[in-house]
Specification:
Oligomer: single chain
Order of helices and strands: HHHHHHHHHHHHHHHH
Radius of gyration: 21 Å
Shape: globular
């Protein structure tokens, strides 16, 4: 491993190391978007809607069960190795599925098997991705890197689906899976070219068993005056936000008569707002009184979430969604940046795993509950409850002194 020593770090958007990492992450994110579109289209075309839903959900189980172990692997083996291995496996599996679809119609079992592999790989990939920026750039540039990461996520969401749809239209689902595999392959040489910063006592930190490392990481989070409360903030905000956004918007659009295009406009407003928040953090690189700003943006974003269900006209709903994206995007980016700067890099894989478990493992479990609540109460009360939970996350952040006083380093 080649390391950087004794060299002043360049500003993130001018640093070749950061740009390589960003290019690899963007390619991988685009690959994810194309893959999931191709998977859902193939599943719907090959079976019933219920069967397609099971195929799409099968990856969630291993991802949730193995996420904490993935954080241990990232810290023990190094995040770059894990990310390279993850994208290599995804590339080979997806290209193998593309070749199979060219030659035959394997049925839903093959799609479910690929989804299962992706769930296992995601459990390794997500903590490693969270741990990698601290090994690529200096601490005072991590906020900018989080902003750049947010822009890459928005780009993946905006461009990935049309790219996958075009590939399906031109060459069928096999071509779409081939495009996804090529994007995963593109990330590998960019990651291999990274020069990483060494950690203090790096060899000593790999002693002991994996189970001991996991317990040590959980104790570290629980005992840290800032990271422990931040994990609660992440969990509360995701529990309040994820269900209504992914389930409630469809019901709301149907009730208002907006149709599928209406969901698109609302989600576009959210995406523009979230992209603007990421761009702001990328440009500024520092937010004075970070903890206070994060808490208040959560509270104000909660107000916008509650208002969204009570706006009858689509243009104003899209504007409210833009406000939600801007405020929730900024608070989320600041929270992630604080996790990066507050955490000892030796624990970042495990800490990222805890944060990812809340947002990607536990929060999706609210989908069935949200659906039942929407049927029983309607959209208005459900969105108000969602707003209350998100506001509670912001109030908690403002109430905890260590979080309220947390600051991103100036860069």
């Amino acid at each position: 491993m080649t390391t950087i020593t004794g060299i002043a770090a360049a500003t993130a958007h001018r640093d070749p190391q950061v740009l390589r990492w960003l290019g690899a992450y963007t390619a991988s994110t685009l690959g994810d978007s194309v893959y999931y579109l191709a998977l859902s289209w193939t599943a719907v075309s090959s079976g019933t809607p219920a069967q397609a839903g099971l195929v799409m959900a099968v990856s969630a189980v291993p991802r949730a069960l193995l996420m904490l172990g993935g954080g241990v692997v990232a810290d023990r083996l190094g995040p770059r190795r894990v990310v390279i291995a993850s994208d290599t496996v995804r590339c080979l599996v997806v290209l193998g599925l593309a070749a199979t679809l060219f030659l035959a119609s394997p049925g839903l079992w093959a799609l479910a098997a690929v989804g299962l592999v992706f769930g296992v790989v995601d459990a390794l990939f997500l903590p490693a991705v969270g741990a990698l920026p601290a090994r690529v750039t200096a601490r005072d540039q991590l906020a900018r890197v989080q902003g750049m990461r947010g822009l890459a996520q928005r780009m993946g969401a905006v461009l990935g689906a049309p790219l996958g749809g075009l590939a399906v239209a031109v060459g069928g689902t096999a071509s779409a899976f081939g495009v996804a595999g090529a994007l995963f392959a593109l990330s590998v040489p960019l990651l291999a070219a990274l020069r990483l910063r060494p950690l203090p006592r790096e060899d000593e930190q790999r002693d002991g068993t994996a189970l001991r490392d996991l317990a040590d990481g959980l104790r570290y989070v629980r005992g840290h005056r800032t990271l422990g409360p931040l994990m609660i903030v992440v969990l509360l905000s995701d529990l309040g936000f994820v269900g209504p956004l992914n389930v409630g918007l469809a019901v709301l659009s149907e009730q208002r008569g907006w149709g599928a295009s209406g969901i698109g406009w609302v989600l576009s407003g959210f995406g523009v707002g979230a992209g603007g928040a990421s761009l702001l953090l990328t440009v500024k690189g520092h937010m004075p009184r970070t903890g206070v700003v994060m808490g208040w943006t959560m509270v104000l974003g909660a107000v916008s979430i509650g208002a969204l269900a009570h706006i009858p006209r689509l243009p104003f709903a899209a504007l409210a969604a833009l406000s939600v994206g801007l405020l929730a995007g900024l608070s989320g980016a600041l929270c992630n940046a604080l996790v990066q700067t507050e955490c000892d890099p030796a624990y970042l894989g495990r800490v990222s795993a805890v944060a990812s478990l809340g947002s990607l493992g536990l929060a999706p479990l609210t989908y069935p509950v949200t659906g039942v609540a929407l049927g029983a109460w309607g959209t208005g009360p459900v969105f108000v409850v969602s707003a209350a939970v998100c506001a509670l996350a912001g109030v908690y952040a403002l109430a905890v002194r260590a979080v309220r006083r947390a600051e991103l380093p100036e860069g």
